[in-house]
Amino acid sequence: MSNNNTVAYKLGNSLYLNVTNRCSNDCVFCIKKTNKGIGYDLTLSEEPSLQSLLNAVGDPLGYDEIVFCGYGEPLTRIELVIAASKELKRLGAKSIRINTNGQANLIHGKNVVPELAGLVDVVSISLNAQNATAYGELSQPLKVNPEEAFEAVLEFARECKKHIPRVVLSVVKWPGVDIAACGRIADDLGVDFRVREYMGNG
Ligand code: SF4
User: Fold this and answer.
1) 79 pocket-lining for ligand 1 (C-beta < 6 Å)
2) Nearest residue CA, atom 6 of ligand 1?
């Protein structure tokens, strides 16, 4: 366990915020399972407060986008994400994105998506798989069975489509993932689709 506490890190002209290591999944390809999947050690010795997060960002005008991401599910800390987004927007942030596993409504036991409306410009949801069976094998949800988790992800995407300007479903190229079938799910939902290369081979 590292004592590193990287809260913000830059990739291209985007600033990524690492707010928690907690997650409701245990994906087989999670960068948590590798040493240096993206070149930064994102193990948090403690979760950042709102103020320390804002301090780590500094002036948001210097970035094309601010992304809540990290070694865990950022919407585990939805209150922090909302408070930080409000302040970053007030300071002129051009675009705010959340990279999420799509289980926030399961985690919080209610529909939280409307709370993100007007603050978040892009939500990128890890679909990961074409059906609940494959989702269970790849994402290994910790709190509910794969069917419930997969349906919750789809429902989250439908809700985001109502409230967020841009919604993306993403998959990682991985054995057993039917990319074409995942793309059809995105099409049916009327959202964008992105295929990612596995990054965790450090
Ligand atoms: S949802 Fe993301 S953070 Fe959570 S286990 Fe999967 S890859 Fe890791």
Assistant:
1) no
2) 27
Neighbours of 10 (CB within 10 A): 11
Can you list the residues of the chain whose pLDDT is less than 70?
A: 1-4, 34-40, 199-202
Q: How far is CA 50 from CA 87, 98, 115, 117, 163, in A?
A: 10, 16, 17, 20, 24
Q: How many CA atoms lie within 13 A of 7 on its CB side?
A: 15
Best mutation site among 27, 34, 107, 196 for ligand 1 pocket (most ligand atoms within 8 Å of CB): 27
Here the CATH number for the domain that contains residue 160 is: 3.20.20.70
Tens of pLDDT, residue by residue over 173-189, are 999 999 999 999 999 99
Number of domains, the chain? 1
- Give 27's Cβ-side CA count (13 Å radius): 24
Q: Which alpha helices (H) appear in the chain, and where do they start and end?
A: 50-57, 78-90, 104-108, 132-139, 146-163, 179-189
Q: Is 115 in the pocket of ligand 1 (CB under 6 A)?
A: no
What pLDDT, on the 0 to 100 scale, is given for residue 197? 87
The predicted model scores a pTM of 0.94
According to the model, what pLDDT value does residue 5 have? 82
First-to-last alpha carbon distance for the chain, in angstroms, is 17
30 lines ligand 1 (CB under 6 A): yes
Residue 202 domain-assigned (yes or no): no
Chain position carrying tokens 């320390």: 52
Q: For position 202, what pLDDT does the model report?
A: 32
